[in-house]
Amino acid sequence: MIDLHLHLDGSLAPKTIIRLAEMSGVSLPSGNEDELLKYISTDINCEDLNEYLKCFDIPLSVLQSEETLEFAAYSLCKELKERNMIYAEIRFAPQLHTKEGLTQDKVVEAVISGIKKSGFFANVILCCMRGDKNDAENIETVNTAKRFLGKGVAAVDLAGAEGLFKTENFKNLFMLASSLGIPFTIHAGEADGAESVRCAVEYGAKRIGHGIRAIEDEELMEELKERNIFLELCPTSNIQTKAVAGIEQYPIVKFMEKGIKVTVNTDNMVVSGTDIENEFNLIKSNFNIDKKELIKNSVNAAFISEAEKEDLFSQID
């Protein structure tokens, strides 16, 4: 199994967060794993993406030191390895982990160190954040990605409240990424419409995070096909954030019929209460889609070398 859209802060088990709180001296609303889960996860009753994002407050509070960031990455990767996964691209926003004085470089170094210690094959994607007062931090994220590109960092991204801060406002970041030779994916078409996806395509995104609302625009779907842009679908999350009404309306089959390459991912294992096996089972139980085809799409979409892709293909076969 492969997961290309996996957020570090949204995928930490309650027991890990409790350990991180002890390490960092942060007080939690509960030291009980089951009780804590109520604060860091959601369900189908979630109102929208903005409410969904509130679940990240507690994990972020305990991820403000090199020690806790390294341990978090290590713990997550050990879990992925135990789940028999063979590759993941783990994303996070370095600027959200600098509240206690860390530089973005130090944040990235700590996460990469944790991944290496785990022995699991993974790279990281650095997220810029939607907002109107953090342009300098976003530019620093892109420059940080350049310094670590090929050394644990695979790409950059844009995440956050898409409905409040339009994709069209962040063109400068992706022009910078392009000029530096950094590949990128962009969260688009989740809490905003097809125009958000179109912006991401025009900027040069190789993949689209979610991209569900592309279903509203026939010309856009044709362009996604022609440009061979992969969609990072996250079924459970997409239903929870109301990007789609329910699994019956999930457009994965329509996308594939249009010739669009899709991948299946978790988004946030703990916030969404899922894992990659559950996501594939959800698709399998509702649609007649070849699981192996979807996994191979993930290999082809991955921000890794051709040699690394060949190795993953051999493991799948």
Question: How do you describe this structure in short?
Answer:
By secondary structure, the chain is an alpha/beta fold. Helix content is 47%, strand content 13%. The protein has 15 helices and eight strands.
Describe this protein's structure.
- It is a single chain.
- This protein is an alpha/beta fold and 317 residues long.
- The chain has a single domain, classed as Metal-dependent hydrolases (TIM Barrel).
- The protein has helices at 14-24, 33-40, 49-53, 57-61, 66-82, 104-118, 135-148, 171-179, 194-203, 218-226, 235-240, 252-257, 276-286, 291-301, 306-316; strands at 2-7, 87-92, 122-129, 153-159, 185-188, 207-210, 230-233, 262-264.
- Helix 5 (66-82) packs parallel to helix 6 (104-118) and helix 14 runs antiparallel to helix 15.
- The model has no long low-confidence stretch (mean pLDDT 93).
Radius of gyration: 18 Å
Structural class by secondary-structure content: alpha/beta
Give the name of the CATH architecture: Alpha-Beta Barrel
Overall number of strands: 8
Major pleated sheet:
4 strands, parallel
Beta-strand percentage range? 5-15%
Distance between the termini: 12 Å
Question: How many distinct domains?
Answer: 1
Oligomer status: single chain
Notable characteristics:
317 residues; alpha/beta; TIM Barrel; four-stranded parallel β-sheet; 15 helices
Task: Describe the protein's topology.
Elements: E1 2-7, H1 14-24, H2 33-40, H3 49-53, H4 57-61, H5 66-82, E2 87-92, H6 104-118, E3 122-129, H7 135-148, E4 153-159, H8 171-179, E5 185-188, H9 194-203, E6 207-210, H10 218-226, E7 230-233, H11 235-240, H12 252-257, E8 262-264, H13 276-286, H14 291-301, H15 306-316
Parallel strand pairs: 1-2, 2-3, 3-4, 5-6, 6-7, 7-8
Helix pairs in contact: 1-5, 5-6, 14-15
